[in-house]
Design goal:
This protein is mainly α. The protein has one domain (2-91). The chain contains five helices and no strands. It has helices at residues 2-14, 16-39, 47-54, 56-62, 79-91. α1 (2-14) packs across α2, α3 (47-54) packs across α4 (56-62) and α4 crosses α5.
């Protein structure tokens, strides 16, 4: 499982397609589970409160209406941005 997560992070950092279709779904599930368990919020049902708790970086990545990338070969998420997302999730 750890190897799979490492692969998703590496691919999500390298390319926008893999970020959207591999790493993002995992982060969405995690954000949804944390919001429900720790804050009694629904990621998709309590969008304004969820956005406030998650912060803008994490919200922009996990929101349900995020569109797939136009350029599938564009760079994915950088380490600093991913670090901010992980920190946001840890704070929930």
């Amino acid at each position: 499982m750890l190897a799979r997560l490492e692969q998703e992070v590496a691919l999500g950092s390298a390319g926008s397609f893999d970020l959207h279709h591999q790493l993002r779904p995992r982060l969405r599930r995690l954000a949804g589970e944390l919001l429900t368990a720790r804050r009694r919020l629904s990621l998709d049902g309590d969008t304004e409160k969820a956005r406030e708790v998650l912060g803008e970086d994490a919200w922009q990545l996990v929101r349900s209406d995020r569109l797939p990338p136009e350029d599938r070969l564009a760079r994915g998420i950088g380490p600093e941005a991913l670090g901010r997302v992980v920190t946001s999730l840890e704070r929930i």
